Amino acid sequence: MSGFVGKFGDKRRAVALARLEEEMVSQSSMVVRRLGRGRGGEISYHRALSAAEVTAAEIVECLSGRAGKTPGFLIHAAVAIEADEETVLGLVDAANTAGLSIS
Fold first, then answer.
1. Which end of the chain has fewer surrounding CB within 10 Å, N or C?
2. Is residue 96 helix, strand or coil?
3. In 10 A of CB 93, how many CB atoms?
């Protein structure tokens, strides 16, 4: 979690995103509903991810600083979110660390 401390404009948001990373690694999944382990966790993750202060660049920065310790985070992903319902639609594109598209 240390890579997330002081990031994203809010301590609670940083904690939620650090938990999300831990769940993605432990469950080998990127399905937010599953990662949340219940409706409350799912909502917490969606709120954190949809905050204006949370940018893809800052998420990549936090995760890349842990790349040697966190297997599976060697890609940069783009996720589509439905604007009205704010639901995650799915992966749009991703690139590995060599910059090759894997979409």
1. C
2. strand
3. 13
Which phi and psi (to 5°) does residue 49 adopt?
-70, -30
Question: Residue 90's beta-bridge partner residues?
Answer: 80
Would you tell me how many other CB atoms lie within 10 Å of the CB of residue 8?
A: 22
The answer, yes or no, to whether residue 66 has pLDDT greater than 60, is no
Confirm whether pTM is higher than 0.90.
Answer: no
Cβ-based neighbours of 27, under 8 Å, separated by 6 or more: 34, 35
The alpha-carbon radius of gyration of the chain (Å, integer) is 13
Query: Cβ(92)–Cβ(33) under 8 Å?
Result: no
- Name the token pair of 7: 């990031």
Domain boundaries, the chain: 11-96
Give the confidence band of 100 by pLDDT, cuts at 50, 70, 90. very low
